[in-house]
Amino acid sequence: MKVLKFGGTSLGSPENIKKVIAIVAKKSQNDQLIIVVSAFSGVTNQLQECSRLAEKGDENYKAQLDELINRHLEAVQDLLGAKAQSGLMAKVRLVLNEIEDILKGVFLIQELSNKTLDKVIGSGEVLSAFIVNEFFLQEGMKSNLINPLEFILTDSEFGKANVDMALTEEKIKPYFQNQKADVLVCPGFVSKDLYGNSTTLGRGGSDYTAALIAAALDAPELEIWTDVSGMMTANPKYVKQAFAIPQIDYEEAMELTHFGAKVLYPPSVHPVYKKGIPIYIKNTFEPDAEGTKIHEFPEPDSQSIKGISCIENIALFNLSGSSMVGIPYFSHRLFEALAQAKVSVILITQASSEHSICVAIDLEDVEKAKFAIEKAFSLEFKEEMLNPLYVETDLAIVALVSSQMKNQIGLSGKMFSVLGQNGINIKAIAQGSSEKNISAVIDKKQVKKALNTLHESFFLSDLKRVNLFIVGTGNVGQTLIDQLNQQSEYLKEHNQIDLRISGIANSRKMLFDLNGIPLENAVETLMEKGQKMDLEDFLLEMKALNLRNSIFIDNTAHEVVANTYAGVLESSISVVTPNKIACTGKFGDYKNLKNLALRYRSHFRFETNVGAGLPVINTLDDLIKSGDEVLGIQAVLSGSLNFIFNNYTGEGESFADVVKQAQVEGFTEPDPRIDLSGVDVKRKILILLRESGFEMELDDIDTIPFIPEKCMQAENVEKFFEAIAKEEAHFKKLVEEANAEGKKLKYVATFENGKANTGLEKVAPDSPLYNLEGKDNIVLFNTKRYPEQPLVIKGAGAGAAVTASGIFGDIIRIANAL
Ligand SMILES: NC(=O)C1=CN([C@@H]2O[C@H](COP(=O)(O)OP(=O)(O)OC[C@H]3O[C@@H](n4cnc5c(N)ncnc54)[C@H](OP(=O)(O)O)[C@@H]3O)[C@@H](O)[C@H]2O)C=CC1
Ligand SMILES: N[C@@H](CC=O)C(=O)O
Q1: Which domain does 509 fall in, by range?
Q2: Are 449 and 523 members of one domain?
Q3: Cβ of 680 less than 6 Å from ligand 2
Q4: Could you identify which of 81, 158, 641, 696 might form a hypothetical disulfide with 747, taking C-beta atoms 3.0 to 4.6 angstroms apart as the criterion?
Q5: What local confidence, expressed as pLDDT, does residue 430 receive?
Q6: Measured from the CB, is residue 636 less than 6 Å from ligand 2?
Q7: Complex-level ipTM
Q8: How confident is the model at residue 325 (pLDDT cuts 50, 70, 90)?
Q9: 669 lines ligand 2 (CB under 6 A)
């Protein structure tokens, strides 16, 4: 004999019921089957809603009831031929008429007791059992309808009655001995008290009916048929990568069901657990899927945890005050007050100082609980021995579940760390000494992010999804996207990192797509499907999406974009940027960004601010963190100026043409005046000095300009080019003077004796700067550890490809740290 329970969604429509019959027909060939059924999906809620409306004297209950009646009558018509219909219609109508009569009475007297409510809501299961049984008969099965009121006996706690286990077991055995049909159809959820009144077993109670029968009959197994392929590692509504857990032990299953896994009603595990009967969770719509087996000794697997659960709509009560310390019975009084108010406590934490105690309860119970606690401790509140009761609402609990926790070090550390890194604040934590569950109370709006973050961190086979929000799709931005496209499969395969562009913008358009904007034609997609760009809206949307592992990438040279970093970092979204403006504003602002990143566990990376893709800032960072001190710097930091002075001879192309070429090659700033004025180099040396620990401002750096003042006054880039073309003689003279001395022109940044300056210099052949080719940069650090022979970093220091790869490097470093 086998016991199978089919849930509401399995019976949600005539089509679904046909799927049920296929499963039952196959299984009934080998075993006698007891089929426990729930009400059709949504019916119990509808019956409850009708009852509430009737209680309020709201006539709308009739319309709802009519809808419900029609649904059942239509199911009869759809499933059954004319002959079977007539017999069944009478039975169905009888039940429906009874509900109609009861609700009419409720409507008239506007009173609804739990006892009456039980009578009404239990009828959903009775109706579905009638229909399913008749359908089985029509399909040629030897089926019989059985009545659980004959054997499931409870106390008179209407609404959620407690089963009298001993009596129920005693009744079940003889009842079923006399049942000879191949298939026995039994309504779940409904029961009877010792005085013959209808009771119900609590929402989800059909599982419980099935478990009670299976346990009493020592069935070899219990099958729970639902609409998912087993107990999932996390709620698939939130976590797309969730997968079915093949095997799990009873206690883990109870933890997961208690903490929100809705596939099984928590009390159902007990009766079968006691008898060691395995439970199978199966999917009616994918009957061949393996599902989940819940039993005593699951085979070990490689996962550190079994699943991640969550309960939403939680409130947290914090009771604190000096009068609690060392007083016995204090918590006893608190829990007694809550118990008397019928408030179930979901989670408890108490500081070891005994100064405060924190309990999490269902949001629905807040008023009841508040009233009960304030009454129980009225004296202490009045005498100010207790602080006013602190209640936080709109919270949720996320919990890691595994029986193996006690054998693993660092699980809770990892949990709290990954949540923290994603800006998810933990309000309370609890871990039972059985170490099967670590729970954290968080804001409800963070649930999706928390579940995904935890799932990625704890289920090793998963890819870590990193959400990129890119602003700026010009020279560098487009090249970065091309590199992301080229490398994305490699990163998935070798590094388990799934980089996706979740948002993209330039100065004209912006676009979001949670499934990822296609990397192969992201900018075309942006221009085609994007809406008008508004930076504020872009940021609002990015923050509202609240995606885990988010990185904001600023590929512009714009101050307005740089000014947004603080707000981005505060939202626990990391920032990567080649834009030098944020790091060269006021020292306090630069420092603030670094502090915000630390405080909100976000990352602020700007390796490409100096030397493009060269590892200048990371190297410097390592030196400083390991205790070294920068004593002096000599550097060529402008790729474009180095290119210009390497290519301008004073004899061939004009100076203006060589500058134009540097611009076309993508070495200059979007506005080349920033390079030629020396501002770009000034910014770079300032960043190096700040990163070295010097509190300096841009104005502290001396610059000797080499571009005639009138050129710099040109009102736009075009006019600037016209102006420098007119000054060809000036530039020619500079080069000829250097040549005459056997030297080369280099734009040099220097820091020595605590003073920094930048300017065009004639460098001699014995200088390490002399042979610097093309658009290369060179940085020589003299430090305490490198006092004579400097630490040298040299290589291409400008250009879209190297800059994009530097940005890419920053992204990967962040992704690895998340
Ligand atoms: N080139 C190099 O070698 C290096 C460059 N960098 C830095 O890289 C950054 C990008 O340079 P590059 O790609 O050459 O510049 P581009 O001018 O080619 O591209 C700039 C991009 O930013 C967009 N943009 C400008 N203002 C805004 C705004 N307010 N809101 C949204 N988007 C905006 C532009 O939009 P639209 O397309 O609509 O015009 C464009 O897509 C600069 O900060 C530069 O200093 C750093 C190291 C080396
Ligand atoms: N314009 C810069 C490139 C990026 O910083 C340069 O010429 O070096």
Answers
A1: 464-609+807-817
A2: no
A3: yes
A4: 641
A5: 85
A6: no
A7: 0.97
A8: low
A9: yes
Residue nearest to atom 4 of ligand 2 (CA): 798
Ligand having the closest approach to the CA of 506:
1
The tokens for 703 are: 């610059």
pLDDT in tens, 501-556: 999 999 999 999 988 999 999 999 999 999 999 999 999 999 988 888 899 999 99
**Percent of the chain scoring above 90 in pLDDT:** 70
The residue among 220, 251, 275 that closes a domain is 220
Residues 732-774 pLDDT 10s: 999 999 999 999 999 999 999 999 999 999 999 999 999 999 9
- Catalytic residue at 684? yes
CB 807 within 8 A of CB 576: yes
Q: What is the pLDDT of residues 560-609, one digit of tens each?
A: 999 999 999 999 899 999 999 999 999 999 999 999 999 888 999 999 99
Q: Verify that 502 and 547 share a domain, yes or no.
A: yes
Where is the domain boundary, 220, 250, 270? 220
Helices (H), ranges, 30-113: 43-55, 60-79, 82-109
Contact 639, 798 (CB under 8 A): yes
Ligand 1: centre distance to CA 557 (Å): 5
Q: Which atom of ligand 1 is nearest to the CA of 561?
A: 29
Find the catalytic residue in 192, 464, 684, 746: 684
pLDDT for residue 302: 67
Instruction: State which ligand 2 atom lies nearest to the alpha carbon of 611.
Output: 5
* Any atom of ligand 1 within 6 Å of the Cβ of 666: yes
SS3 763: strand
At what angle are helices 655-664 and 717-726 packed, to 10 degrees?
150
Looking at residues 371-381, what average pLDDT do you find? 90
Within this chain, do residues 653 and 713 fall inside the same structural domain, yes or no? yes
776 lines ligand 2 (CB under 6 A): no
Q: How far apart are CA 312 and CA 454, in angstroms?
A: 16
Mutate to test the pocket of ligand 2, among 668, 671, 772 (most ligand atoms within 8 A of CB): 668
Residues with Cβ within 8 Å of residue 652, at least 6 apart in sequence = none
Indicate if ligand 2 lies below 6 Å from the C-beta of 640.
yes
Q: For residue 801, which ligand has an atom nearest its CA? A: 1
172 and 23 in a common domain? yes
Give the integer Cα–Cα distance in Å for 498 and 493: 9
172 C-alpha to ligand 2 centroid (Å) = 83
Q: Does an H or E element contain 146, and which?
A: none
Nearest CA to 661 out of 650, 674, 671, 647 is that of: 647
Task: Give 211-255 pLDDT, tens digit per residue.
Answer: 999 999 999 999 999 988 889 999 888 888 888 999 999 988 888
Confidence of residue 433 (pLDDT cuts 50, 70, 90): low
* Closest ligand relative to 670 C-alpha: 1
